[in-house]
Amino acid sequence: MNRYVVKRFIGLIVVLIGVSILSFLMIEISGTDPAEAIARRASFNVTREQIEVVRLELGLDRPIVERYFRWLTGILTGDAGMSTYSNRSVIEDLQVYLPVTLTLVGLSLAWVVLFALPVSLVCARYPGGILDHVVRWLTLLGICTPTFWLGFMLLIVFAVRTPIFSVLPEAGIKGYLLPSLTLAVPILSAGIRILRGSLLSEANRDYVTYLKARGHSKRDILYRHMLPNALPPIITLFCQYLGYLIAGSAVVESVFSLKGIGTYLVGCILAADSTAVAACVLIVATVFVLANLMGDLINRTICPWMVRETND
Amino acid sequence: MTRKILKSPQAMIGLALIAITLLAAVFAPWIVPNNPDGVSLTQKFKAPSTVHPLGTDQLGRCEFSRLVYGARYSLGMALPILVILGVIGLTLGCACAGIGGVFDRVVTIISDIFIAFPALTVVAAIIGAWGNGIENIVLSIVISTWAWFTRMVRSYAVMEMGKEYILGARIAGAGTMCIIFRHVLPNIMPQYLIYASTGVASAILTVSGFSFLGLGLPAGTPEWGAMLSEARASLYSHPELLLYPGLCILATAAGYNLFGEALRDILHGGSTR
Amino acid sequence: MKQLLLEVEELAIALTRSNEQKVCDLNFSLDAGKSLVFLGESGCGKTLTCKAITGGLKKKAFRVSGSIRFGGENLLALSEKQLCGIYGNEIALIMQNPMTAFNPSARIGSQMMRSIRLHTGEHRKTAFARCETSLREAGLDDPVRVMRAYPFMLSGGMLQRAMIALALALRARLIVADEPTTALDVAHQREAIDALRRLRDNGAAVLLVTHDFAVAKRLGGEMMVMKDGRMVERGTVEKVLWDPKAAYTRALVAASRLHSVQDGGWEDARSGSC
Fold first, then answer.
1. Is the ipTM reported for this complex over the cut 0.85?
2. CA distance B34 to B248
């Protein structure tokens, strides 16, 4: 087991390095001149010399390889550099924007866990029943629903027509309820579909027949035997979505006027702020690969037989 | 097989939705009653009438006409994206499964990097670099999602190559290329098509999502996501302008998902029912 | 008249979806200490009959009529709760494919003990001891290692013996073995049938389903040949094999004789050696 973890960890580092290089490259090819963008912010008519001064000041004249390594060493020592977009240190920016997104994403995932498990279990307990059919159709609609549209619909119903919530962000958890629900719906739908499908395919397996023939009750079979075997696909899904959520929350943040990482990221990209972009991307990618690793480890623990199957 | 598709209500509803949106996209110029870009400030926010079946929007343009043209944009971007992703995914995925070794490892690591990379960044970077435009949206979405397709196809292909008949083919003297083209590819096609149909739905959602954020299309384009973004200001006054484009996106995506799911049920004998 | 352990009357099983009749008008009985072999080709309905007895038929997919009396009670008329008390406890199943019979994510010992404690309500330690003893009785030399292992770590033969051990541990009165030898290699096949014989000689009733003559011969007892859901012939194993009355049975025996003459088999179906 330990060798596996070490091997995965090394792979993880390789991926993260690759991601950071890619993010620098991406900004480089974007062609926008960050020095020019900053200079133009100060005054509309800028001369070449003024732009060059800005460039020298921010060290943007150095070759990209040097800039990358400077950034890398900075990251490793805890300094993520200065954001040319916001004129603050990236760390400061992250301290403002990251918590918002993390709360949003955390709450969304809480919804998913809260509902996916019970709903799927009930569907598997009474397959073909009314609830099962309703759930099938609802979840199908759920994965087709554009999140930004759903956000607006929820706002219309709960903030415009009936003023339970406000259109602008409120303080505390209340301000995160609608956005997190919006973000959660597609994932909840996908999750229920996968878990339900997984449970249903477990129900056809031989060991279930044998358990029934040994006198175990349906409840016992479902919770103690089928469920652990059915969990791996949804755990994998969960962990894959974790990374996607953090960046994909940009859309929801836009609808609900929240200032999170998604919004910050878009702004930085459009301002060609490679430092900030690289830092954000690194965070998102780290969360993603760590979550995937965690998911794999969990799966291997609850289903030891997978260890043998996935040895590639 | 066609009979089974015809018998399944889910498949038929899905096909119907797909057909409606495709027809709307293809025949838009002949179907619409008005010019989708026809701004008329005197006709703002009009209620539905015979001239404007769904009324007008905040700039007096015919809502219905814009919605129909929206199909052109959504499908016009989502379908080419899927075709390109298909070519890349099938080629690379099968190549990885067939060649294996170092090639496989390298491609896997590269695709891992791209998968870990948030899609938003890629899209914003490319749009920021090369400006708005359909080709750029298509390009950026392809770059951010090719890795998923490759990985999926690779896993299908690897599973297929592990089957015994492939061993038989090898013993009979078939080379790797022959095995891939004659055996692996045709046999993974059904699974791939199911994955691709849900891919179309997700591409439609992605495309409209990015348009909503303002990434990619010039202002005023009758694309559903962009229309939603423009209608934000009318949240209090005319919320229905927010309703229509979203419903269109939902219906189009639903068509492909419904069909894909029905196809999966048919091919796997209803194991997910 | 003395009540027999298992009495099946006019059993009929049909698929609900297509109304296809899979088993028609089956009548047979089995008493303690006796064995009955169902012989027939694939699709003749023998496995379905087994499933009907051990509760493996999906309620919605099949329509079952007739009666299956076990110890006087009609299993088809009992509630789920009552059936849970009987399955495993009084009626034990030996499944065809031992490699997939157990939950792949739990250790064998844990699974066996759960089933044991479900019916006996024993303490963990007692259940453990009982489990260990029955695994040894079933022919496994290192029961503790088997109990600590996950199913994928063990061979088919060992898992088969674990299933037999479970039947022993719960002192089941009726053992239903659904093609227990099909997934085993020849050496283990012999041992599996011998284990069933021991169970029978110790007082259990054994119902064996197979398509293999040699297996039927080795178990002995009564035999019923089935085709297309109906009984074709009945009698003792020896009698049916030596002197088949029905044309179908004759064809089967002839085919098997040809087969065993050609490559020696592990026993000639008609030879008397045991």
1. yes
2. 19
